[in-house]
Amino acid sequence: MKIKNNKYIDWFLTKPKTTGFIIFLILSVGVAFTIFQRIQIIRENEHRAMRSTLENLHQNIDQSLKNCYTTTLTLALTINDNGTPENFDSISAQLIASNNSISAVQLVPNGIIKYVYPLKGNESALNLNLFNTPSVKYEALKSIANKKMYFAGPLVLKQGGIGIVGRLPVYKKNKFWGFSAVVIKFQDLLRKSGIKSIDTSKYYFQFSKRNPNTQKEDFFLPIQKDVYENEQISTTIPDGNWKLYLFAKKQIYSYSDLFIPSILGFILAFLLGVFVTNLLDRPQQLQQLIDIQEKMILDNEIKFKTIFDRAPVGIALVDANTGSFLEINSKFCELIGYSEEEMKTKDYQSITHPKDLLSNELVATELQEGKISEYKLKKRYITKFGKIIWTNLIVTSLTKANKKLNTNISIVEDITLQHQILEDLKKNEKQFKSLFKSSPIPLWEVDLSLVKNYLKDLNLINKSSIKVTSYFEQNPEVVRKCFSLVKITAVNYKCLQLLNITTKNELIANLEQVLHTDTLNDFIKQLIAIIENDNQLAYDTKIINSNGEAIDIHFTWNVIKGHEKTFERVIISTEDITSRKRHEKLIIDSRKKVESLINTIDGIVWECDIETFMFTFVSKKVEQILGYTSEEWINEPDFWKNHIHPEDRDWALEYCSLKTKELLNHDFEYRMICKNGAVIWLRDMVNINFRNGKAVSLEGIMIDITKSKNIENELSNSFNLVSKQNERLLNFSYIISHNLRSHTSNIASIISLIKASENEQEKRQLMELLISVSDLLNETMVHLNEVINIRTNIGLATEQLNLKAFADNATKIFSKQLLSEEVVIRNLIPQKTTIIYNPAYLESILYNVISNAIKYSYPDRKTIITLKWLKEKDKNILQISDNGIGIDLAKNGNKIFGLYKTFTNAPNSKGVGLFITKNQIEAMGGTITVESEPNVGTTFKIEIL
User: Fold this and answer.
1) pTM for the complete prediction?
2) Rounded to whole angstroms, how far apart are CA atoms 710 and 678?
3) CA dihedral angle for residue 419, residue 420, residue 423, residue 424, rounded to 10 degrees
4) Position 645 confidence tier, pLDDT thresholds 50, 70, 90
């Protein structure tokens, strides 16, 4: 063979050009392979970068969703045992503040959105029934079926925008209550994911989900075309059934950097071919190759030394005969605390713990004798400072070319921390057993693995709890079979004492002796928990002791960590609550009697917190008085404040708050609005409730005093009406006595003069004067009669009038002035303005006011009269303005509307028109006011109800 090989070698040595060409070909192939590998590395690096980018996005989204799970779980904990959220707004505000990716939170009892925070901007989502809404029904039912939090969407939110809704199904007393939900704006989720940090020049991100209704994949981000479809990666988020894509844009790889190295590689291959050719031609260069080989050996030695010194574990070369240290790396020195020079003066026996030395010597001897090639040992070392450390020791004998050297290599790993953890676990196990036995609560340790396996065989695992419960109810023999598979591994003394049993074996032999009817029925809850892999369970039930006595217990179980999948170790607590149940029944019976007595009281008995004014009790009488139920009142935190009449709300709240701060009982009256919109008067008598000298609550009774208030108001209105009527009659009597006295006095004087006259001419003159005075008296009587008719005309006929059209018709009487352009009447009343009024009165009012404006016009300018319809402080005002001579209100303001009160020298001014106008307006329930300035004009404002 050697001769044959020598022939081949000689052939190559004698053909240097052929050999050089072969070398060139081999190296060219190597260069090509290297370039190919480099391309593959570049592509792999790009793929790794893409995977890293996508993984970061996935982790950010996943972390946001986990934070939302904490939020929904915290929100669900606000629901009390009655299924009512407590402190929803305040807790929701804190949750949103702590998780800035959430825009809103919801509680959805029975699938209907009833609680939203913040409410502003989300009002349209209230009362949305998820089960009646096709777009969200499927994902809501999926969340219930999985009994896990599920993120629906992205979808168009009822309150606007695109978002994601995470719903956690909430169960109360093992019954579905509803959902605890968070709303995340889709853009906020993308922002939190870090999508904006992606290098958009290289990558394109896409977010998709398979539509549960159409089963098509929907994409939620704009689709870009400049991507390689084959250069993409994706990942899924099962909590929302989403899929994340990362696409590489075109020209992602740049191979220009490989062009020069590839050219250089081929040139190098060519040069090496030439070099080999020259080398074979020049044997003298062999010495150079020898030098190169020596350098490579030296490099290898340096590499070994580097690995030896920088290894993360302790490494030492040990003399196999003496145990002395020959070479020690820095990690070994660090573990033991000695320097390398100090270690070389020692052997392994001197630093080994005395208790481990014998076992170490035995295996070392076997290694030395060649019985074993290496050994592994857990042993203790004593450091320079006296500290004991535990290590894993691996010792191997070194060999060279099948020749055994007199040196061993030792590898030492510090396991002090792991050893301490194991010791702590053993100690904890002992403590657990001690606590289990001496616990004052009856405890069981059971193995339910057989039960779980049996349920697996029945194909019930992870099935719907509703279907499984129905199955157990229809197949009670399956429940009993499962009960018989329960394996008791331990019970403590308190458990035996509770059941009046002497030993654990007695209980194991006949476990069914503790069965009560409730026990077996409630055992279904345990089976449901096993099916759903619930590691914790609690409920109240009954068991029977050996004497046949029923005992109320609070049953709880916890699966020991590490056995969550198999249920091999489950700790069960059966706390005796018989006495507590008996007392609870007494309290409930007593409470029912008190509530029955309270509900017979003719008034709303209530109780509320003294700090927050949140009501904790409202008697059933509220339904009879206000129409609301007690639950509606209590469930709405601000019910009392919101249902106080708006005119009474501020002072009532302020008064109650002031008296409460002063810790004074108080009694006040205010109005509230009933469910049907009616307003009633309540008298609220409030007492401060003290406990241990501290005010803790308010108690009181609200009595309906609407009837007495109405009677009081009627009496007050009647009194005011009589007072005003008396005042008017008194004023009218003064007018009559004054005006008629002047006329009768004139008539009496003229008659006496007629009697005393001596000729017919004088008598005729006096008779003409008497006739004139008589006519004036008759005119006065007509005016007085008209005023009386206005004041006594009750129940005037009214009708709906178009004010603008009516005013246009009423002003036609002044057509002569309008045609001569002496007067301009501007009717600026809106076209569709309508009022309910007496037509005759409205015509009289318009005539008197407009005729006065014409009568008292300014002589040097055209008369302009303007009619407007205004709203002033929720009052309807008809405003009539003119630019006449005006009135000096400082001088004549108190007699403008008086009978026969005039303030000009005009011969046709009698002081009757405005007096009648005022009485007509007041008869219709309105008022009239005047604003005027001499030589500028006058404005009358007439209030029309």
Assistant:
1) 0.32
2) 14
3) -140
4) very high
